[in-house]
Amino acid sequence: MRHLKIKNLNIIITEKSDGNMKDPDTREDFLKKTGLPVYIPHQKHTAVITTPEENLSPADGVFIERKVFAGGVLTADCMPVVITDFNKLVVIHAGWRGAVGGIIQRGIELFEKPEELTVFIGPSAGKCCYQVQNDFIEMFREKGLPDKYFYRNSGGITFSMQEFVKDITDRYGIKNLIDISLCTICEDDFYSYRKGDFSERILTLAWLEE
Ligand SMILES: [Zn+2]
Question: I need a surface site. Which of 35, 74, 171, 203 has the fewest CB within 10 A?
């Protein structure tokens, strides 16, 4: 488990050694130890952000407007993203579908002063390993998005979700982007869908202290 603290923001990221967080019993046991109320959305690669009160389903982000209440997302190669002004926070599960669908922008726009936000990018498929095919590149182009996020290497073409998200935060004038810079595909500590962990997930939890 990794535990990061930035001011009153706490982020916990589970590793393989903590168990499969997609398994309800394993997850419940783990969450009990935190002692926090937690909301995890019913994820389905959407661009929907819910609140614990609304409980929209499916949703791939949760907006938490209280302190000492955690939001969580389950991932394996997709990107966990935390957006906060240190009073409220959003936790997002961003695969390429959600990211291209605008879920990061929606998360940012829940706050009045985007330029003052801190954005955290968790362990996810990196440009070192995130191979994509021509149909993906074509879809990207059809949406009018630039080619600069694609890299040609010996294995084919890879995509940088990290740079894609960084450009979104740049457009809002966000200076505080923290990228943990851990690729789930080549770092053995994390589950990776692309490496065969189809039903395993890591959990990213974030909450604000008083
Ligand atoms: Zn990698």
Answer: 35
Q: Looking at residue 164, which CATH number applies to its domain?
A: 3.60.140.10
CA 35–ligand 1 middle distance (angstroms): 33
Query: 44 C-alpha to center of ligand 1: Å?
Result: 24
The range of the structural domain enclosing residue 29 comes to 2-208
- Å from CA of 125 to ligand 1 middle: 6
For the chain, residues with pLDDT lower than 50 are none
Count of domains for the chain: 1
Q: Are strands 38-39 and 70-75 parallel, antiparallel or unpaired?
A: parallel
Ligand 1 geometric centre to CA of 105 (Å): 26
pLDDT of amino acid 153: 85
Ligand 1 centroid vs 130 CA: distance in angstroms? Answer: 7
Q: How far is the CA of 98 from the centre of ligand 1 (A)?
A: 21
